[in-house]
């Protein structure tokens, strides 16, 4: 039935009744074997879907609080970014903050390739002063600029572009975080 990667169509164009009876059998064979064409390699859709599958596994592990599983996924899949975002625009660090999962937050912040984006604002909103200080420390390390922690984060999906950490802490009425921000300058 197959010659290389092409279907031999001559069987379908004959007016012979005997060959017409073969059509259902040939169609079944075609459908059964369509995924076994080794010479074609992986389908384009499966290649494109693989990162999404890996990302879903990463997010599922973060949401379940399984730090070891997250470590294993990121170690075994170096092409997977720890900064990937889900359909809501949240990274694994965002989700760990929303879950108030301190071990997961600590692990993610220890990674050199982590991007904290607007996570300081989330830590303020969620009243997480210790994690806020770790996020600020990471921001300063990454950007080599202590002033960066005072600036608004442009492009946040949850906060307006003008929102600074001090503004948000004041809006939330969190005096402990306000004190931290004042002490940091």
TrEMBL record:
UniProt keyword annotation of Ion transport present: yes
One Pfam family, short name: Ank_4
One GO BP: regulation of cytosolic calcium ion concentration
Gene Ontology CC: one annotated term: plasma membrane
Recorded coiled-coil stretches: none
Keyword annotations from UniProtKB, A to Z: ANK repeat, Ion channel, Ion transport, Transport
InterPro entries: Ankyrin_rpt, Ankyrin_rpt-contain_sf, TRPC_channel
Swiss-Prot/TrEMBL ANK repeat ranges: 88-111, 161-185
GO molecular function: inositol 1,4,5 trisphosphate binding; store-operated calcium channel activity
Record-given protein name: Uncharacterized protein
């Amino acid at each position: 039935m197959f010659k290389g990667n092409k279907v031999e169509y001559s069987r379908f164009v004959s007016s012979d009744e005997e060959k017409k009876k073969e059509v259902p059998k040939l169609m079944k064979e075609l459908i059964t074997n369509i995924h076994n064409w080794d010479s074609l390699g992986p389908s384009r859709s499966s290649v494109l879907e693989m990162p999404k599958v890996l990302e879903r596994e990463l997010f599922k592990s973060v949401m379940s609080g399984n730090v070891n599983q997250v470590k294993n996924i990121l170690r075994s899949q170096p092409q997977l970014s720890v900064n990937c975002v889900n359909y809501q625009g949240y990274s694994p660090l965002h989700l760990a903050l929303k879950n108030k999962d301190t071990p997961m937050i600590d692990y993610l912040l220890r990674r050199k390739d982590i991007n904290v984006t607007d996570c300081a604002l989330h830590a303020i909103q969620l009243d997480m002063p210790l994690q806020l200080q770790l996020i600020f420390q990471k921001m300063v390390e990454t950007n080599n600029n202590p002033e960066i922690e005072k600036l608004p984060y442009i492009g946040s999906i949850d906060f307006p572009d003008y929102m600074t950490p001090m503004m948000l802490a004041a809006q939330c009425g969190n005096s402990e975080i306000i004190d931290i921000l004042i002490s940091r300058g």
